[in-house]
Amino acid sequence: MRIATLGISHETNTFSSTPATYEEFEKVEIKRSDQIIEHFKGSNYTIAGYMDAAKDFDFELIPLMYANTGPIGTITKDAYDRLSSEMFEMLKSEGPWDGVLLANHGAAVSEEFPDMDAEFTRTTREIVGPDVPVGITLDMHANISKYTVENTNICIVWRTCPHLDPKPRGYKCASLIVKTINGEIKPTQAIETPPMLVNIVKQFTGQEPMKSLVEECVNANKITSVLDTSIAEGYPYADVLEMGMSWITITDNNQRLAEEISKSLALGAWEKREDLNKQVHSIKEALEIAIKKYVGPKPKGTENYVPNDGSPLQEPIKTNHSHLGPIVLMDVGDNIGGGSTADSTHIIKKAKEMKIEGYLQSIYDPESVEICDNAGEGEEITIDVGGKTDDMHGDPIRITGIVTKIHDGKYEEHRPNHGGFRFFDDGKRIRFDTNNGMTILLTSMRSGNTAREQMYSMGINPENYKIVIAKGVSSPRPAYQPIAAEILLVNSPGVTTSDLTFFEYKNIRKHMYPFDLKAKFT
């Protein structure tokens, strides 16, 4: 049994000024053939789930090509054409296939195709024909259309945010494809897409209101003839028709049941639409709370812990019940995992005005990295950092301090982390300790804060700081919740701000909650 795997994974922020060019994909990840297996071996990503299934179900997984870049702007036509044409040529030339397993993100937008994932699955289906089972495993932030579902036999979505279950969900997708190939099941799918979204600050599946919605979705999976159920939170920074939440039910040859379950689950969420869109603290409020609540550093020996089995019904991340450790502020407006610039200075500006010490954050600033590199380790210099990509994320902030460490930026994380990745690269980076009690990690690549090894590998122990800024919303939680006394979400400005009235949407559905408070769904 020969099953191909391939995919373009991109979360497209259509409001971002940084286009996803072919070169941007090259910077991050374009893997071919056995490079894919080597790269994802030992990871918790979707393709690792496909690899495990290949061993357990005794099929040959043929890796073709996989491309990924960080969440930035719209994929250029050139990038999509070059990537997809190479992938689809492989799919044509290396067949025939018994099945196909796709590893897309699910919220991709290209200049030519607003619903790029649907186009990708359409072409895949066109190449392999109507009788070859096609499975796809999507990120929980996917904006999923009925066309993506129609083009596949199995469409499965991760169920945790932050994403701790890509591997088991990929495994589930592969197992159902194998059963379909063997004639053991006849999958039928139904998607429900109510006119609503869940604000990014309410997407953590370990807390309400998302926690119970995930539980209801998983419980529906126990109904006779149901093969799988998925809930997708959607990605609100994409100005496309498909933007919003969705539910997918897969049954064994029972289309009516699939439709009924997806509808019922969506109606349950509709009743919680107000709670799914409540706002959080301002910058000033969050910093004041952090100063007041900070008790002391987290004791050593708490940085490593054993994760659970990945079940979304269990609390996916340990909580620091001792109340010792840093107060971690999530910089929502500079959510790198949502397509932001990684160089926002809004929070550090206010922290500097408030004379806060014991403060840690990262900033993307290749120009400052070069200045520090030229100065050399141990030198004291003054630099203007951050706020250089656009006019949405603050002005450069002047800081004086010591170039403590210069590093090539590559590191490896074995602790649980969002997305299940193993290898990371910040580009050349600098540890800069300021004269006023701040530590700034300057990077030359846009990098999120999803792995604590990012800091440890630079000799930085975040446990010892009063306030840690994590550029994200949910994605930094697996890394930082084990050491945090408390995590606070901050409604900061930026291209990923939680205040969606900041954006001018032109292509989403007309009557959609919360933009239209009178929107209806029955």
Count of DSSP H/I helices:
14
Oligomer: single chain
Q: Give the percentage of residues in beta strands.
A: 15-25%
Low-confidence stretches: 302-321
Assign the structural class, choosing from mainly alpha, mainly beta, alpha/beta, alpha+beta, or little secondary structure: alpha/beta
Shape call: globular
Q: Please list the strands of the largest sheet in the order they lie side by side.
A: 12-13-16-17-11-18-10-19
Which whole number gives the mean pLDDT? 93
Kindly report how far apart the N and C termini lie: 44 Å
Number of strands: 19
Give the % helix.
Answer: 25-40%
Question: How does this structure look, described?
Answer:
- With 522 residues, the protein is an alpha/beta fold.
- The protein folds into 2 domains: 2-187 and 228-250, Rossmann fold (3-Layer(aba) Sandwich), CATH 3.40.50.2300; 283-498, no CATH class.
- It is built from 14 helices and 19 strands.
- It has helices at residues 22-28, 34-40, 46-56, 77-93, 116-128, 146-150, 166-181, 210-220, 255-270, 283-293, 346-353, 366-375, 453-456, 477-480, and strands spanning 2-9, 29-32, 60-68, 99-102, 134-138, 154-157, 187-192, 226-232, 246-252, 327-331, 359-364, 380-385, 397-407, 410-412, 423-425, 429-434, 438-443, 467-470, 486-490.
- An 8-stranded mixed beta sheet has the order 12-13-16-17-11-18-10-19. It has a 6-stranded mixed beta sheet with strand order 2-3-1-4-5-6, with helices on both faces. Strands 7-9-8 form a 3-stranded antiparallel beta sheet.
- The longest helix is centred in the N-terminal third of the chain and has 17 residues, at 77-93.
- The two termini are 44 Å apart.
- Mean pLDDT is 93; it is low at 302-321.
